[in-house]
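Entry for the shared binder. Reason: the reviewer on the internal report wants the predicted structure included alongside the sequence.
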Amino acid sequence: MPLFQGLSAFPPTPSDQHGVVDTSALAAMLAGIHEAGADSIGLLGSTGAYPFLSRDQRRRAVAAAMAAVGGKIPVVVGVGALRTDEAQALAKDARDEGADGLLLAPVSYTPLTDHEVFEHYTAVADTGQLPLCIYNNPTTTRFTFSVDLIERLSAVPNIAAIKMPLPAAGNYAAEINSIRARTSPMFRIGYSGDWGAADALLAGADAWHSVVGGLLPSEALALTRAAQLGDLEQAKRIDDAFVPLWSLFKEFGSFRVMFAIAEHLGFGAFQPPRPILGLQNEARMRVANTVDLLRASIASIPSK
């Protein structure tokens, strides 16, 4: 399947208290994603804690990923940074290590203008020389991409896709159609926000950029394939099994919950980077029980 389509699984990046990446644990996570049959890996996305890692450690993570699964499954690397030259350096690092694509958020302490974002993306896309996905993440960046800006950026060489947040009104089809009317047929539109994945894919989105897929890829893939086939009933059955986990994502934040899932699945007792704190014992138990029930519930749903 082409890049930026289907299930793109975003694992956490396991690291110690000093921000040193555990490459063995990361490789194990990525191997599981590949073996499950996901369409791509989203490395160093928001779930992958990219803002908390140094350039050296980010490059180390990319090198470990390519050693583990390079050539077996496409790897898209997040290269967001405060400065354009830093993002360009990260894009070059990712390209040099053999990454297949890039993901870029307009990270900034000072609110950016449309012109500043356009120039930022143009510079990074030119340096990276890899297919690049726009990361529209207004909750974190406080910047929202207008359709006008998406249209302009879609014409820039190497910019090939956009990762959208869930629409406030829930009208995926209208949003997708408005973007498609202004961009090339080859420009891919995907969504993050896991609890909206089924609706987005059923409405015709090209990709699900999945948090949960980073650690539960088989279960996420079952939902993806059902929705891609337009099987509303099957997609709803699988999505209903995910609802308790979506509730925990909303209650605690998916970032914290994913670290608890990683521990429960035996990847290691990694903590989120400070100042973010991991979940307390009672919450971790709730996560563990929810994951076990989720996996059993989806396994019991007859495949089609």
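Summary line for the report: Residues 6-229 form a domain with the TIM Barrel fold (CATH 3.20.20.70).
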